[in-house]
Amino acid sequence: MTQAEIKLCSLLLQEHFGEIVEKIGVHLIRTGSQPLRVIAHDTGTSLDQVKKALCVLIQHNLVIYQVHKRGVVEYEAQCNRVLRMLRYPRYIYTAKTLYSDTGELIVEELLLNGKMTMSAVVKKVADRLTETMEDGKTMDYAEVSNTFVRLVDTHFVQRCPLVPATENSDTGPPPPAPTLVINEKDMYLVPKLSLIGKGKRRRSSDEDATGEPKAKRPKQSTDNKEPIPDDGIYWQANLDRFHQHFRDQAIVSAVANRMDQTSSEIVRTMLRMSEVTTPSGAPFTQPLSSNEIFRSLPVGYNISKQVLDQYLTLLADDPLEFVGKSGDSGGGMYVINLHKALGSLATATLESVVQERFGSRCARIFRLVLQKKHLEQKQVEDFAMIPAKEAKDMLYKMLSENFISLQEIPKTPDHAPSRTFYLYTVNILSAARMLLHRCYKSVANLIERRQFETKENKRLLEKSQRVEAIIASMQATGAEEAQLQEIEEMITAPERQQLETLKRNVNKLDACEIQVDETIFLLESYIESTMKRQ
Amino acid sequence: MVFPIGCLNPQAPSIMASRGGGRGCGRGQLTFNVEAVGIGKGDALPPPTLQPSPLFPPLEFRPVPLPSGEEGEYVLALKQELRGAMRQLPYFIRPAVPKRDWRRLPRELKIRVRKLQKERTTIILPKRPPKTTEDKEETIQKLETLEKKEEEVTSEEDEEKEEEEEKEEEEEEEYDEEEHEEETDYIMSYFDNGEDFGGDSDDNMDEAIY
């Protein structure tokens, strides 16, 4: 784990779970797997706090445990999973676009709580939806259940590994920690639950009992005493499936940018057909015949078979090689080259970074070296048609930032410098890694700056919160306009200005984090795909 | 393939030797043929760097503007909401108040905090019924949190009497309690102020409110 990753993990843990969890989490990321007592001793925190922190981390799938010999349980942190916390808003937004508000809230609850049972999720989401609906309307549990089942069917939500059912063959003491197992088939099996009920609106249930909320309490607690039918079956969000969706989205929009809307629709159809048949790490999808694609096109698209064939041929001939032809049966068998597509996307990211950082002439040189693989100094000057001095300067700038590397090819066994070729080349994998590392650093900087800005203006923020609270309570008691005016004037105009600036800055920094996370996703996907092929 | 100038010279070893031997004459002596990398004869080398590069080097090119639009704004709002929401969940562990040695301090200091809390609740409750127009939800929320605290406080008192072995843990919980109380005390006082404001303004319209 690089320093930049550890720093970013530390900031994310601290923002979302507090300092104690952060201390334990970062310690585990740094040192690898350790047992409980060692953690407590090395971090200097009390055993209780360590236990609480570990419970939280395990609940959120950030730490896993293993029983080692002699009954010692060791805990290991998953640094990559911690970094995913940056992407939570994107997951939730995707769920919203696919399954509307219900899906959005289901995924949000699962992400916020780590793991939950289906009945708990359904109840909570129904309550939340009921709050937002008009008076008198409530959300039915059945509707929420349906959306949940749909999410499971499309693999966006999956079951957590289960405690194995212990037969009575174990006569010895129970193991210190359960070994959770999950069967591939069971991962998406929804238990048969009959969840009947409607969402409860907090207001409506308490409106009748202003002076005696205590009386309401015992009623609610008896509801909880009923046995939960799906006890022990926990669900979590399946991040890999979301990543697959993002990847498909990126490929489709790349095709749309490069060619036109129709080709992107064709590619989208092909990807949709391969969703469940292709494993997530595969370099290319299963071959699809042109006839199948024609049948599966969305209903609104009225293109003839011939036009489809022409489009497919065009796509297959494109130098970017997103689509490849793998055979001629069934009107032509076509595959989508996922690995090549990710490579192209990563390369495009690199090119764009070079262009924005160094200028378009540098970008030209970069693209040239990419295309020709290896070039000498003189050749670069000639092909790029840029004067020698400037070309040199640009090459060195990119070299110093590690976008371009130098390859030595000795002519003689003694590697004498005067008899060695020095060739400029772009190693995409290492450049991608370098850029990824930079991205982690950038996000860490953005978070730190945002925290700094908030801390600087803490006094002012608190004052404005106070004033808002006062205004709210005054409005509730029916105060007059003039009084509200006077309270609002408690915040002077320059202070208001300062608050506006602060809000704008914080929003900008947040938006930057989201943007950098998109780049992180592309680069990580490419690196992962490349590592799998080796 | 274009060969760099000077490479094919059969007298290469002697040239290298003379280069190495001629220290100090000519411009910097490097171990490899600089022409191969592109620095021609007579070109000035860039000035030597005498200090680390500045912390915020001036940007040559301004960064591209962030994507705006409905999706971007929605995701942004989501992100900020999530941040706030996670702080409120039970998974957010606040650092515990340091352990105090209760043997040294008068006993009343420990209980007093709760007593104040109880007094406050008794003071506030009678005020509420007259103000029927107040937002009931806020009231219920406040009362619920207060009662929760009362319940926790009383349950802890019971625990203390029964088990003294787990005193450490309880004290920590109590301190968590106090932490919570301290934190929400802050906000509590604001609500008090708000009512006073409202109450005062109802009575005296002449006095200016600062």
UniProtKB/TrEMBL annotation, chain A:
> Which Gene Ontology CC terms are recorded?
nucleoplasm; RNA polymerase III complex
One of its Pfam families is: RNA_pol_Rpc82
Q: Which InterPro entries match?
A: POLR3C_WHD, RNA_pol_III_RPC82-rel_HTH, RNA_pol_III_Rpc82_C, RPC3, WH-like_DNA-bd_sf
Q: Residue ranges of the RNA polymerase III subunit RPC82-related helix-turn-helix domain?
A: 7-66
* Gene3D superfamilies on file: 6.10.140.1450, Winged helix-like DNA-binding domain superfamily/Winged helix DNA-binding domain
Q: Where is the composition biased (Basic and acidic residues)?
A: 211-228
* The keyword Transcription is annotated on this UniProt entry: yes
What positions does the domain RNA polymerase III Rpc82 C -terminal occupy?
A: 146-344
Q: Where is this region: Disordered?
A: 197-230
* Quaternary structure, from the entry: Component of the RNA polymerase III complex consisting of 17 subunits: a ten-subunit horseshoe-shaped catalytic core composed of POLR3A/RPC1, POLR3B/RPC2, POLR1C/RPAC1, POLR1D/RPAC2, POLR3K/RPC10, POLR2E/RPABC1, POLR2F/RPABC2, POLR2H/RPABC3, POLR2K/RPABC4 and POLR2L/RPABC5; a mobile stalk composed of two subunits POLR3H/RPC8 and CRCP/RPC9, protruding from the core and functioning primarily in transcription initiation; and additional subunits homologous to general transcription factors of the RNA polymerase II machinery, POLR3C/RPC3-POLR3F/RPC6-POLR3G/RPC7 heterotrimer required for transcription initiation and POLR3D/RPC4-POLR3E/RPC5 heterodimer involved in both transcription initiation and termination. Component of the RNA polymerase III (Pol III) complex consisting of 17 subunits.
Return the protein name. Answer: DNA-directed RNA polymerase III subunit RPC3
Automatic annotation (TrEMBL), chain B:
Q: What is this protein called?
A: Uncharacterized protein
Q: Which species is this record about? A: Ovis aries
Gene name as annotated: POLR3GL
